[in-house]
Amino acid sequence: MSSTRLLQPQRHRIGAGFQAEGWREPLALLDPFIMVDHFRMSEPAFAPHPHAGFSAVTYLFDDSATGMVSRDSLGGEHAIPPGGLHWTLAGRGVMHDEFPAEPGREAHGLQIFVNLPADQKLRAPSVMRLSPQQMPRRAGKGWRAVQVFGADTPLDLPWPVSLILVDIDAGVSFDLALAEGEQGFALVIQGSGQADHWPLSAGRALSLPVAGRACVVADQPLRLACFSGQPLFEPVVRHGPFVMSDEGQVVAALQRFQSGGMGRLGARSPASTTPTIQNKETLS
Known about the structure:
Elements: E1 5-7, E2 10-14, E3 18-23, H1 27-30, E4 33-41, E5 49-51, E6 54-60, E7 68-72, E8 77-80, E9 85-89, E10 94-100, E11 107-115, E12 126-130, E13 137-140, E14 143-149, E15 161-168, E16 173-177, E17 183-190, E18 192-195, E19 198-201, E20 205-208, E21 213-218, E22 222-229, E23 237-239, E24 242-244, H2 247-258
Antiparallel strand pairs: 1-20, 2-3, 3-4, 4-11, 5-10, 6-9, 6-11, 7-8, 7-10, 9-12, 13-14, 14-15, 15-22, 16-21, 17-20, 17-22, 18-19, 18-21, 23-24
């Protein structure tokens, strides 16, 4: 791939309490990411469910009206505040559940699935977290950036990946540039502008090739979520909430889940609402 291009989102809605724009294809252009959802959620939409073979990552924007609660079969029940990050490294398998901390108030964020290298897909599950205060910040003339995760954050990441949130003032240009060996994409969260010859507006994503670059000019105040990482270039077999290297690993993950090998999750607190569906491949 030698040039930038636009990636089209898939839109999802579940009842009145959940909506999202998601990017899943082409997988080769997202690698090492599996998918990203830009979501708004005001009530629980998904029952407790398993993950295996990747990391399920939740980031809440600083404008989120409420935080979220993340529960897992490792025994954790964690608060994700606005501006905070929660990284569930599923490995060989974990049960998981996330929902707004205050039913009826809207959680606004990103749900990110990050692939694990083949030799780490069966590692023990774990959880990592960052508060907004732990995220490095930079600023220039007319722009501000927050590194949500990446090399400069205190996270022990299983593979080199990065998410940088960039706010660009109207009329200001900003240079997106990837390191050698990395590819990436930038989601337009709000505002409008241009990148080279491509028009940018909320809900669009700009794909950058390996070591690519683009000059972004903001027509209106523009917020970009900029993802980058070293592609894995490894086979991927997806089956619902499992992302493995081959079909045999998928079957084994399903057997672990059915036998209780990924642990159990008890009932939510009475304050939470019953989810509207029982299984979901993407969010949470």
